[in-house]
Amino acid sequence: MKWRKRTEGLFLVPSILFLMIFGLGMLMAFMESLMDDGTATMGYYMELFRKERFMRSVLYSVWITAVSTVLSLVIGLLFVQVFKEKLKGGTGRLLVWIPMLFPHFVWAYLVFLLLNQSGFLSNLLGVSGLMAERTDFPVLVQDPGGIGIIVTYVWKEVPFVILMLLPVYASLSKGYREAATLLGANPVRMFTTAEWPFIKPALIETGAILFAFIFTAFEVPQLLGVTSPQMIAVLTYEWFYSGAWTDRPFAFAALLLAGGAVGMSMWLLTHSMNKERLRIASGGRGG
Fold it and tell me: Distance between CA atoms of 22 and 31, rounded to whole angstroms?
């Protein structure tokens, strides 16, 4: 068995190589964001916050991400609450998780085909006589409000929320619900006392994962978004591939700032939720 122990370290090689490549890329991006005619400076970072286009992009990205994340969490939680018994079977889970089999850009294209002004839904309303002209159909994709982007992410991420919450509900003890029922608790009180303390860490961590992914995503806002305002990834893509080389440091700086903010937030949330799990496991005792 010695040979097995000697080769166990080889399984770490892909991860180590990935971290090395990722770290090297981040280092090169950081150096690029500091260079101005061969001189290291923080000028690009300072200038970035004075760019109105960048600040609009940050606010727009936070808005789209927050709405998509909250809606996905609420809908996914309600779905598990209502259908958790039916989701125990393989068929129910398969039907719910079908959207997870397709990439985000495929789902974005489906939303475009369904909801654009000449799409399936507008044609259906026109044929049925409920709408006179295609232009009467509201602009739901490639709109400044990002409705099409939000619809795509909610449609795609609700199954992920269900996937993350089902194991938690499967591990919940029925004793808590029975005790709450005997004490005359209403459904809201039963949820807050018998379920919420146990599902909160998983729900918050799931929300953090969704927020980090959506905030830095590219393909969906690129396909369904507008030229202004833009989400962070689309804006940095344009800066990087624009004809002006002076825009590239701004692209690196914006990506590093967004990645750093998301990474720090994820670490803080994970640390906080780990402490919450330890508190629950210890019977609610602090410390």
Answer: 14
The pair of three-digit structure tokens given for residue 137, joined into one six-digit string: 């159909």
Residue 98, token pair as written in the block: 């079908």
Spell out the residues 6+ positions from residue 51 whose beta carbon is closer than 8 angstroms to its own. Answer: 250
Answer for the pair 48, 257: CB distance below 8 angstroms, yes or no.
yes
**Mind listing the pLDDT tens digit for each residue in 36-92?**
666 666 777 788 888 889 999 999 999 999 999 999 999 999 998 888 777 776 677
pLDDT tens digit sequence for 63-75 = 999 999 999 999 9
- Given a cut of 50, whether residue 287 has pLDDT beyond it is no
Closest residue by Cα to residue 229 from 104, 105, 54: 54
Contacts of residue 135, defined as CB under 8 A and 6 or more positions apart, other chains included, come to 117
Q: With helix as H, strand as E and coil as C, how does the chain read? A: CHHHHHHHHHHHHHHHHHHHHHHHHHHHHHHHHHEECCEECCHHHHHHCCCHHHHHHHHHHHHHHHHHHHHHHHHHHHHHHHHCCHHHCHHHHHHHHHHHHCCHHHHHHHHHHHHCCCCHHHHHHHHCCCCCCHHHCCCCCCCCCCHHHHHHHHHHHHHHHHHHHHHHHHHCCHHHHHHHHHCCCCHHHHHHHHHHHHHHHHHHHHHHHHHHHHHCCCHHHHHHCCCCCCCHHHHHHHHHHCCCHHHHHHHHHHHHHHHHHHHHHHHHHHHHHHHHHHHHHCCCCCC
User: pTM value?
Assistant: 0.83
What number of other Cβ atoms are within 10 A of residue 94's Cβ?
10
Taking the C-alpha atoms of residue 177 and residue 180, their distance in angstroms, rounded to an integer, is 5
What CA–CA distance (Å, rounded) separates 230 from 149?
11
Q: Closest Cα to residue 146, out of 225, 231, 211?
A: 225
